[in-house]
Design a protein that fits this description.
Elements (H helix, E strand, L loop, with lengths): L77 E3 L6 E3 L1 E5 L2 H13 L17 E5 L6 E5 L3
Antiparallel strand pairs: 1-2, 3-4, 4-5
Length: 146
Amino acid sequence: MASEKGPGEIPVIMYEPYREPYRQEPSAPELCGQEGGYEYPSPPPYSCRETTTIEQPVYLVSQPPIILAGIFSSKPTTTICPSCRQHITTEVTYRLGRLSYLLCTSLCMVGCCFGCCFVPLFVRSFKDADHYCPYCHFHIYRYKRL
């Protein structure tokens, strides 16, 4: 009878892992042993001793930050440079700022539009002042008029 069969058998399928075919390592060209061919240098001597390296500790010395002392204005000021830490008198360069443009626009609106409105763009007393170190040319401070 078909219902009286023994324990059922489960088919088991075994797979083998894929193996790449053997590849031969590239060898030296045939001309190596002949005249005019390239000869490989001999390898360095082998040593059984273990080499150890001793790491030296690194010490970082931090310097305290420099607080800019002095009142900056449109004139050169004596201070300490935060970059090179020397006592200096700053070099001042002038650049256009908000006050220059505001005066130019307001003069143009009043009616001075035939060239008089551009006067604030050329006068130093209406420009912002940038302070630089004379030694390392580090930008220290910008004095803004407005």
